[in-house]
Amino acid sequence: MRIVLETSVLVVAARSRNGASYQLVSMRPTPRFDFALTIALYTEWQAALTRPEHMPPGVSVDAALAYLRYLASLAHLQDVHFLWRPFLHDPDDDMVLECAVASGSQYIVTHNVKDFRWVPELKVQAIKPADFLNLLRN
């Protein structure tokens, strides 16, 4: 099964080790699912996770970037040849949707499910990290 990890999941995982986001990110690598990543989404990850307000205490920017490089090394790198823009209200969300559609991902794992309410017509479902973990368990 292939998914796309929206940036909010990584931000929440970086802030706390007590939630579904951290559990999900920590499961990598696993044969249960893989995740798709585009250059545009990776660039957004870098920008978001190196902001001071998103940095865990005691973690340097270099360490955060090294971790993102590790995650990228595990990802299915996806080219996008067809843009769905504008489809959603936020262009950054369109970028996530394009990655999901191009990669054949079944799910966009996000904390912002409401931002992706129109994606089922493209055969992609937005799902929260805890719900995705429950899906894996069942």
What tags apply to this protein structure?
138 residues, 46% helix, 5 strands, globular
Helix-strand layout with pairing:
Blueprint: E1 2-5, H1 7-15, H2 20-26, E2 34-37, H3 39-49, H4 61-74, E3 76-77, H5 91-103, E4 107-109, E5 125-127, H6 129-137
Parallel strand pairs: 1-2, 1-4, 2-3, 4-5
Helix pairs in contact: 1-2, 1-3, 3-4
Give the integer mean of the pLDDT values: 91
Task: Kindly name the structural category.
Answer: alpha/beta
Q: Biggest sheet: strands side by side, in what order?
A: 3-2-1-4-5
Sheet with the most strands, sense and barrel status: 5 strands, parallel
Uncertain runs are none
The radius of gyration computed from the alpha-carbon positions, rounded to a whole number of angstroms, is 14 Å
Quaternary structure: single chain
Strand content: 5-15%
- The helix count comes to 6
General form: globular
- Summarize the amount of helix as a percent range: 40-55%
Task: Please report the total strand number as a whole number.
Answer: 5
Cα(first) to Cα(last) distance is 14 Å
Order of helices and strands: EHHEHHEHEEH
